[in-house]
Design brief:
Helix content is 39%, strand content 16%. It is built from eleven helices and ten strands. It is globular and about 50 Å long. The N terminus is likely disordered.
């Protein structure tokens, strides 16, 4: 189920890998020596801008001056995290433990055979054995959306989704497809909370059963947002879905990251209210309830490279140390633009995110490292060859 982790590289990186590392070192150094507050970005429709009580929005983070020597030291450390992670490993011998998010453009885009073949080939070549496949969002009226724009009801698009699943499975029946369903906890910013509604829970459970029993999905991914603190309603929802789809189908949960973790010292972020995080007890309850958790390591509001790396490492270390079951832990990393308060695309890169994951693994003992199942890539467009090279050299070949 889990990947075996090698704590130290046995061979030096290849020439191409070394060049990539040197580019990263230069990038880190430049970033740290410039040290400005930076601009920000947003994840795929995430609710991090959620309820007014959770966030104190501000237009921009104030720049913070730092000593050049401290900046350069941070750059060297950040680069060292990447360099220390690499080794020449035969990736074809690795299990297919990684995942990718496929947005609505893939499912509702009427793909031709050649494009779908190319996608599946890329995924298997890079040891990706699972796809979180966007299906639908639950609307204010309690109906499930469909189509590429989400403008119609799901039942009008059901045949399209079914055809995608069938076509995908015909080409690769070993890859798991989990139906990614999006559920907003609030109808508005005032008092529209709805996750305590038992009828809503039953609606979601019935929809999940339809997706696995009739459309051929291997499970569901719950993307419930915003959820900045622990919530019993969320646990009850997971249990209701479990009762509906049974124990043979997977339930994955997209995990809201801790935006203001107490256990580490990070750059202060005025835009976020203190205490915006899940308790250790609630994290454990989610780990026990789900088959897998997907740590969303973006929309961090971080404007500093080393801050971002340490923030990711904190989550890897925290969730592994809390794990008491065989629940899988996947770390979702960003590969998208679209700057906003929450996401600075120059900071939240695939390279920096993988450095954070590897730093988190370095902090764990040898027995705990394999408890991180793999990486889940979130991208708003098909990955380029350069993107795949970064993933291969900084993760698969580490």
């Amino acid at each position: 189920m889990s990947m075996t982790r090698d704590p130290a590289p046995e061979n030096p990186p290849s020439g191409r890998g070394l060049r990539a590392i040197l580019v990263s070192v230069a990038s880190f150094a430049s970033s740290f020596l410039s040290q400005a507050g930076g601009e920000s970005a947003e994840r795929h429709g995430s609710g991090h801008l959620g309820p007014q009580r959770a966030l104190r929005l501000s237009a921009m983070l104030a720049p913070r001056n730092r000593l050049r020597v401290g900046a350069l030291a941070g750059a060297v450390l950040a680069a060292g995290l990447i360099i220390g992670a690499l080794t020449n490993r035969d990736t074809k011998q690795l299990p297919l433990n990684n995942a990718i998010w496929l947005d609505r453009a893939w499912v509702y885009g009427d793909l031709d055979d050649a494009r779908l073949d190319a996608l599946i080939s890329q995924l298997t070549d890079h040891r990706i054995g699972k796809a979180y496949t966007y299906v639908s969002s639950l609307g204010i009226d309690g109906r499930w959306s469909g189509s590429a724009q989400g403008a119609t009801g799901f039942m009008n698009s059901r045949a399209t989704v079914s055809a995608f699943v069938e076509s995908f499975k015909q080409r690769n029946d070993q890859m798991q497809l989990l139906a990614w369903i999006e559920i907003w906890t609030h109808l508005d910013n005032v008092d529209g909370y709805r996750l305590d509604d038992n009828n809503l829970h039953q609606n979601i459970a019935d929809f999940a059963r339809l997706l696995v029993d009739q459309l051929g999905f291997d499970g569901v991914l719950l993307d419930v947002k915003p959820m900045f603190a622990g919530n019993d309603d969320f646990i009850r929802l997971i249990r209701r879905i479990r009762a509906a789809i049974g124990v043979e189908k997977s339930i994955a949960v997209a995990v809201t990251a801790d935006l203001t973790p107490n256990d580490i010292r990070l750059q202060d972020i005025p835009a976020i209210a203190p205490g915006t995080m899940w308790s250790s007890n609630f994290k454990q309850r989610v780990l026990v309830s789900a088959d897998e958790v997907v740590l969303l390591m973006y929309q961090s509001y971080r404007q500093d490279t080393l801050d971002y790396i340490n923030w990711i490492a904190y989550h890897v270390e925290t969730y592994v140390n809390l794990l008491e079951t065989n629940t899988e832990i996947l770390v979702s990393i960003p590969n998208y633009g679209g700057a906003s308060n929450a996401h600075n695309p120059d900071i939240e890169t695939m390279t920096n995110a993988l450095a954070g994951v590897n730093e988190g693994l370095r902090r764990l003992d040898e027995e705990s490292r394999p408890l991180v199942t793999g990486i889940a890539i979130y991208s708003d467009e098909p990955l380029s060859q350069a993107d795949w090279t970064v993933f291969r050299e900084l993760w698969l070949q580490r």
